[in-house]
């Protein structure tokens, strides 16, 4: 049992940092264990122009701890009205790495999202030509579809027709949660990949619903059955380059989670690398952690590997019960629990 681990510095290819006062908490929490992160654009209003993305990027940089080398990578929010020429501008901007498609109504701040894929086909065609990746929140929004089936139905009804129409479009299927998504991803060739969160590796729906309702484990896509969790653990730890790290760390203040209509999202940034290390160790796959956390994502986005390293040591510590957030509190993932891996800042 090794006492320490040294990795090429990891990247988080899917994170929500929010804006305004939230940045006092979120930026440092992610910069703590990631050198780069792909920042989700679902603010209010959404980040749907180059200028908005560049301004937001500057606000993120303004909140970095002293001497941090953290780099925010930006994404644009796709709407029914996104003009095709925005894709050309995004490609030449160099700091915009992807365009995010939220099916309208699928999740937090998604009402400005896409109402029908046909409406954005000219934009997607240009993205395929310029090789700008599309990030998919892969859930259908039809209220007749069960919440636990929304991802699997999306694969059949939306993703597969899109792949057939535009096979060259680079796609990341974000925060996958099902055996069906794992199998789908494994069957793809070309620039196609999936991100996997640490919470979908650690938990299944029993943790959310089986022993009292746990609002701090509510996220979208929702946690699924144990067999789906096992498929995700197998995929993430397998060394397959089509799977890489995206935390989907998505902070919501305590009162908006512990509510009659609680928000979806899990704040995992304060414990992310420590918990990924725990999962990979449990699966006997610590030797694949660096590829998942630090190489597969960079390869997909055609970025160089980070030149510095992150060290983790075996040094038990207790996750705080809560953290200050927006003048109130936020409950991080694994609050109050003892973790065995710790980031070594020495
Ligand atoms: O749980 C989630 N929270 N899933 C998402 O897709 C969005 C996110 C958020 O922004 O809160
Ligand atoms: Zn997300």
Explain the overall architecture.
- The protein has 346 residues and is of the alpha/beta class.
- The chain has a single domain (4-343), classed as Alpha-Beta Barrel (TIM Barrel), CATH 3.20.20.140.
- The protein is 33% helix and 18% strand.
- It contains 12 helices and 13 strands.
- It has helices at 23-31, 50-62, 85-93, 121-130, 150-165, 179-186, 198-202, 205-209, 226-236, 254-257, 272-282, 289-301, and strands at 4-8, 11-15, 36-39, 71-77, 96-101, 134-136, 171-173, 192-196, 243-245, 309-318, 323-325, 328-330, 338-343.
- The strands form 3 sheets. It has an 8-stranded parallel β-sheet with strand order 2-3-4-5-6-7-8-9, with helices on both faces. It has a 3-stranded antiparallel β-sheet with strand order 1-10-13.
- Strand 6, helix 5 and strand 7 (171-173) form a beta-alpha-beta unit.
- The longest helix has 16 residues, at 150-165.
- The two termini are 21 Å apart.
- 47% of the residues are buried.
- The model has no long low-confidence stretch (mean pLDDT 97).
- The chain binds (4S)-2,6-dioxohexahydropyrimidine-4-carboxylic acid and zinc ion (ZN).
- (4S)-2,6-dioxohexahydropyrimidine-4-carboxylic acid binds at residues 16, 42, 107-108, 137, 219-220, 250, 264-265.
């Amino acid at each position: 049992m090794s006492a320490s681990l040294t990795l090429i510095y990891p990247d988080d290819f899917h994170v929500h940092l929010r804006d305004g006062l939230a940045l006092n908490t979120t930026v440092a929490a992610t910069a703590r264990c990631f050198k780069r992160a792909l920042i989700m654009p679902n603010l209010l209003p959404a980040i749907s122009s180059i200028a908005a993305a560049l301004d937001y990027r500057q606000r993120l940089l303004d909140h970095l701890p002293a001497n941090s080398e953290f780099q925010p990578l930006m994404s644009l929010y796709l709407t029914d009205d996104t003009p095709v020429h925005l894709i050309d501008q995004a490609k030449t901007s160099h700091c915009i790495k992807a365009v995010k498609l939220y099916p309208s109504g699928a999740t937090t701040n998604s009402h400005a999202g896409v109402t029908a894929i046909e409406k954005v086909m000219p934009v997607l065609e240009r993205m395929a030509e310029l090789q700008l990746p599309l990030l998919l929140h892969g859930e259908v929004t039809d209220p007749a579809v069960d919440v636990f089936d929304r991802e699997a139905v999306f694969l059949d009804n939306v993703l597969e027709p899109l792949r057939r129409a535009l096979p060259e479009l680079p796609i990341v299927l974000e925060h996958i949660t099902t055996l069906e998504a794992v199998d789908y991803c494994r069957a793809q060739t070309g620039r196609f990949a999936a991100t996997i969160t640490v919470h979908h590796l650690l938990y299944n729906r029993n943790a959310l619903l089986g022993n009292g309702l746990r609002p701090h484990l509510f996220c979208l896509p929702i946690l699924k059955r144990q067999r789906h969790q096992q498929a995700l653990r197998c995929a993430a730890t397998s060394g397959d380059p089509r799977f890489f790290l995206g935390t989907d760390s998505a902070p919501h203040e305590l009162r908006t989670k512990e509510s009659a209509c609680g928000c979806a999202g899990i704040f995992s940034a304060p414990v992310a690398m420590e918990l990924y290390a725990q999962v990979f160790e449990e699966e006997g796959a610590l030797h694949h952690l660096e590829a998942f956390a630090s190489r597969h994502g960079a390869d997909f986005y055609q970025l160089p590997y980070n030149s510095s390293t992150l060290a983790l040591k075996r040094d038990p510590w207790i996750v705080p019960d809560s953290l200050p957030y927006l003048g109130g509190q936020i409950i991080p993932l694994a609050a109050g629990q003892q973790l065995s891996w710790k980031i070594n800042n020495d």
